[in-house]
Amino acid sequence: MNMMNVCHYLLTQEGAIREVTPDEAAAVASGESALPEYADLRLRYLQVVVDDKSDGENIRVRTAGATVEFDHDGILSEAGIAMGAENAISRFEHDTCVQLALGGVLGEPITRH
């Protein structure tokens, strides 16, 4: 079994986590689509890559974090490295996103609160 899954998550300062589909993430990154609900905001972003290309016993998970800024129309205007305490992705947020990404791979039900 060889499966690679790339998940995209936007994290608000209020603690909300929103998963963005790969197609939506590509459209937002290219400027073809806007997220008006995030107009004039800076958010944290976490990409989780789940790679199950081994013998079925091991799963490799890679993550990358960033900050993203949206203009007054909700169009991505800037993306950069998540630096500073106000842009840090907490261990809890990181682990939650990883567990969400693994939910479809492991086949076990997860509890959502």
Describe the structure.
The protein is an alpha+beta fold and 113 residues long. The protein is 21% helix and 35% strand. It contains 2 helices and 5 strands. The chain has helices at residues 22-29, 91-106; strands spanning 3-11, 17-20, 42-52, 60-70, 76-80. Strands 2-1-3-4-5 form a 5-stranded antiparallel sheet. The longest helix is centred in the last third of the chain and has 16 residues, at 91-106. The mean pLDDT is 87.
Give descriptors for this structure:
globular, 5-stranded antiparallel sheet, alpha+beta, 2 helices, 113 residues
Query: Class by helix and strand content?
Result: alpha+beta
Give the fraction of residues assigned to helices: 10-25%
Anisotropy-based shape:
globular
Secondary structure tally, helices: 2
In whole angstroms, the N-to-C terminal distance is 31 Å
Give the C-alpha Rg. 15 Å
Largest β sheet strand count, sense and barrel closure: 5 strands, antiparallel
Mean pLDDT: 87
Order of helices and strands: EEHEEEH
> What's the count of strands?
5
Strand composition percent:
35-45%
Provide a concise account of the structure shown.
The protein is α+β, with helices and mostly antiparallel strands and 113 residues long. Helix content is 21%, strand content 35%. The protein has a five-stranded antiparallel β-sheet.
